[in-house]
Amino acid sequence: MAPIAGVQFKYPSSVKDVDQHKFVKAFAAFLKKSGKAKVPEWVDIVKTSKAKELAPYDEDWFYIRCAAIARHMYIRSPIGTNTVRKIFGTRKRNGATPSHFCPSSGSVARKALQALESVKLVEKVPEGSGRRLTSQGRRDLDRIAAQLKPKKLITE
Predict the structure, then answer these.
(1) Rounded-to-integer distance, Cα 39 and Cα 63, Å
(2) 80: which of 10, 69, 92, 152 is 20 to 30 A away, CA to CA?
């Protein structure tokens, strides 16, 4: 792009530059539209944690969970199933007794990581446990972030 006299375009550099809620929604829509992510057949009846009473209301919750995991991997990786359980864990209410932290479902975490791996966005770490983003996955996340952030005009 040819520069305009005295005006410089600034493009976003990463996922960290955009609002996390908007990014996760946009990346979940991208995963759903691509149709490559393998969604388990039990997603409409499963609870996300033993601390929850009901299944999620949103029909696309699995795509949103995968997008949130991918965003977290962009910021800090490698992560494994136990890390994902800890991230999405919540407070379990025990009635009259005190509440305690309860990790989320391990099966949901494992299937979400496997779905991202089947789309070639995530790969297993060879030297240890956990998974990290591939270069293609990092590129896709940056591309979605670039679409979300408006271009700024910087005048000199």
Answers:
(1) 8
(2) 92
Per residue in 116-132, is it b (16+ CB within 10 Å) or e — as a string? bbebebbbeeeeeebbb
What is the DSSP secondary structure assignment for residue 33, as one 8-state letter?
H
**Residue 83 to residue 32: CA distance in whole angstroms:** 24
75's torsion region: left (phi>0), alpha (psi -120 to 50) or beta? alpha
- Which residue from 101, 93, 27, 17 is spatially nearest to 65, judged by alpha carbons? 27
Q: How far is CA 56 from the centre of its chain?
A: 17
The rounded distance, in Å, linking the Cα atoms of 81 and 112 is 9
Indicate the helix (H) or strand (E) that contains 9.
strand 7-10
Whether the Cβ atoms of residue 69 and residue 23 lie closer than 8 Å to each other: no
Backbone angles phi, psi at 148, to 5 degrees: -80, -40
Distance CA 98, CA 101 (A): 10
